[in-house]
Structure formats: C-alpha cells, structure tokens
Amino acid sequence: MSSTPSAAASPASSGEHGGPGGSAVSAEHPGINELFALLAYGEVAAFYRLTDEARMAPNLRGRINMATMAAAEMNHYEVLRDALEHRGVDVVPAMTKYAPALENYHRLTTPSTWLEALVKTYVGDAMAADLYLETAGAMPEEIADVVRSVLAETEHSQFVLAEVQAAVKASDRQRHRLALWSRRLLGEAITQAQYVLADHDELVDLVMAGGGLSHMTDFFDRLQHTHSTRMHDLGLA
User: What is the DSSP letter of 14?
Assistant: First the structure.
C-alpha cells in the first residue's frame, strides 16, 4: 500500500466514539498490532512497486517524483516498525502474514503504461487507506496518530493529478481506458480487503468499533463513494 494520495476522511476518523478518552478500544486491543503489521507490509510493498514503476516514467521529473514517493514509504515503514517494537512485536514475522493478499492485489493490478501507474498511485492505494482510517477514531490518540502519520497526503501526489488530468483532457480514448482501469482497481481492492478481514477477526473488530457500523456493507459503500470522488478529481468520471 502506498500512502501518497489523499485518503478522504471517513466518519470513523472524527474521534466521536465512546470509551475512555473518547476511544472505543484500548491501546492493548490485539487488532492494533495487526493493523500496524498490515500497514508496515503495505509500505514495503509500495516502496518496491514505486521503484519499479519509476522506470516507466517518460522523463527524469517523473522518475524523481516516483522515487521521492518511494522514499516516503520507507520512512512510514520505519515509524510503524518502531511503534511495533515499542509494543514488543517483531515487525518482520508480524507483517509477513499479510504478504499474500497485498502481493496478489499488486499482481492483479500491474500497470502496463505510465498513466496506469499514476492512476494506481493516486486512486488504488488511497482505497486501502480508507480501510485504515476507518479505525482511527476508535483508537486512543497516540495510536491513531501513528495511523494518520503514515497515511498523510504528501505534496508529491499533486504531480499525479496534474499529469492524468492533462492526458485525459487531450484524449477521450485515454479517459475511457483509464476509467475502466480505475474501476478494476476498485474491484480488486474490495476483493482483497474482504479476504484480509475474513482472516483476521481483530481487524474486523477495529473497523466495527471505528465506524459504528451496523453492517460491513456500509463500509464498502463508503469505499465506492470516495473512489467516485477521486475519479472525478482525475477527470475520469
């Protein structure tokens, strides 16, 4: 997962839930270690993905922008590694269990062009961030701060927005093709999120506590809504 694009704040990130200090779960909730581990693997996977996709850039500016985002991913990984170590958890074995789902998502959404790589960077990874931000409002502030810090928007994502907007404005063919690609990213992201949640009850508990959800379908409906917003931002709606 990459945290470069902006992840729209969900109702879960408002911090308006019950529990001590406004949090619905304690700092010792087992789902917190799982969330940090999932995030950590996502950051490492994103680093390698962005490094590879930088080679697709048509110019040096694009390669530098991708490399800068890749470096940010490793900085985020270090934040999560330190947070897990502070909680007495070894990051490598903890995060390895999430490799299959995340690697499968990247395998099924390997971009074939530079523009596809940019759309995936801006849209695809932000959908994963929506899942993580669903939990932030339920956590104690010091835990939520870690989540938000590794999912914060960076200024570098704006170059993605500008390049894609220019390309789709110049070509209806590109717009239609990238709109289909964006919908594919949404479908694969939802599928892999369902697999992860099905295998990890602790994460489900965090999502439920964070959003106060009566049904998990509410969460996936919000994923689709924020995805539609991002497609509009890119000029693909």
Answer: G
Altogether, the residues listed in the chain come to a count of 237
| pLDDT tens-place values along the chain, 237 residues long | 444 443 333 333 333 344 444 567 788 888 899 989 999 998 999 899 999 999 999 999 999 989 988 898 899 999 999 999 999 999 999 999 999 988 998 899 999 999 999 999 887 667 766 766 666 767 788 888 888 888 765 555 778 888 999 999 999 999 999 999 999 998 888 888 888 888 888 888 877 775 545 556 777 777 788 888 888 989 998
Q: Is 144 left (phi over 0), alpha (psi -120 to 50) or beta?
A: alpha
79: nearest Cα among 42, 49, 104 = 42
Alpha-carbon separation of residue 184 from 18, 53, 105, 123, 149 (angstroms)? 37, 18, 11, 11, 28
Per residue, what are the HEC states of 186-229? Answer: HHHHHHHHHHHHHHCHHHHHHHHHHHCCCCHHHHHHHHHHHHHH
In the chain, the amino acid numbered 202 is: E
Q: How far is Cα 15 from Cα 37, in angstroms, rounded to an integer?
A: 22
For tokens 């470069």, what's the residue? Answer: 4
Q: What is d(CA 48, CA 147) in angstroms, rounded to the nearest whole number?
A: 21
CA distance 130 to 225: 11
pTM, two decimals, is: 0.82
Domain locations in the chain as residue ranges: 26-234
Classified by CATH at the fold level, domain 26-234 comes out as Ferritin (1.20.1260)
Q: What are the tokens at 134? A: 């669903």
Q: CA 233 to CA 228: how far, in whole Å?
A: 9
